[in-house]
Amino acid sequence: MARDIGIEEPGSAGGVAATDQALALAAAAGDEPAFAALVERHYERFYRLAWRWCGNRTEAEDIAQDVCVKLAHAIRDWRGEAAFTTWANRIVYTTTMDQLRARQRLRLVEPSMMATLVEQGAELKAEPSAEVLILHGELWDEVRRLPDQQRDAVLLVYGEDMSHAEAASVMDCTEKTVSWHLHEARKRLKKRLGEVG
User: Fold this and answer.
1) Comparing C-alpha atoms, which of 6, 69, 12 is closest to residue 34?
2) Which of 65, 74, 127, 192 lies at a C-alpha separation of 20 to 30 Å from 80?
3) Are 165 and 122 in contact (CB under 8 A)?
4) Which of 14-23, 102-111, 144-153, 180-189 has the lowest mean pLDDT?
5) Rounded average pLDDT over 167-185
6) What is the CA 91 to chain-centroid distance, rounded?
7) For position 106, what pLDDT does the model report?
8) How far lies 119's CA from each of 25, 104, 113, 158, in Å?
């Protein structure tokens, strides 16, 4: 079935890559190669999203793997009513929040790790430079101290470059609520950083 939806087989010369929607529908119908292709395509993003919240590479890897296990079970019920990435982001978010709460009721990440929260994709693998730590450390330290929903809105919209609609879907709230959380976060951050500076 994977071949029917255009998954490029290893070593093939010209297979067409299937869309996430087509792969997810095939995976929901039991197509294991389609599910494997989805996981391979999105694993790095699962890891990056988890890492933004926990700030620890080992824990982020554990969360990303847990997300894949949950996806393997949940994909059977996916019917394409939302974009696959929106649906998967919600699973990453809830899995991360569950693990963080279980770990220590949302323990704060060490301040030296805060600056790395702004790094993207492959840059997450490199240690942050002293300059990056100086420029961004204080801001991200304050972001981690925001109330949970304000923090989540900031990390999703500014850290992951999601639209308000995408963040609302992940946070299970309305776009207006995301906008309000961002507005409140900006006010709080401006006040706190003004006091510190």
Assistant:
1) 6
2) 65
3) no
4) 102-111
5) 92
6) 9
7) 40
8) 32, 25, 11, 11
pLDDT of residue 129: 52
Task: Give the integer Cα–Cα distance in Å for 8 and 10.
Answer: 6
CA 151 – CA 155 distance, rounded (Å): 6
In angstroms, the CA 156 to CA 168 distance is 9
111's tokens: 């301040």
Residues 6 or more apart whose CB falls under 8 angstroms from that of 39 comprise 68, 71
Whether the CB-CB separation of 99 and 63 falls below 8 Å is answered with yes
> 137 near 112, Cβ under 8 Å?
yes
Q: How many percent of the chain have pLDDT more than 70?
A: 70
The pLDDT tens digits for 61-79 are 999 999 999 999 999 988 8
- CA atoms 186, 189, 193, 194: torsion sign: positive
Higher pLDDT, 191 or 10: 191
Find tokens 């981690």 and name the residue. 144
List Cβ neighbours of 137 (8 Å cut-off, separation of 6 or more): 111, 112, 114, 115
Q: What are the structural domains, with CATH classification, of the chain?
A: 14-107 (1.10.1740.10)
| Element containing residue 75 per DSSP (H, E) | none
CA distance 51 to 141: 15
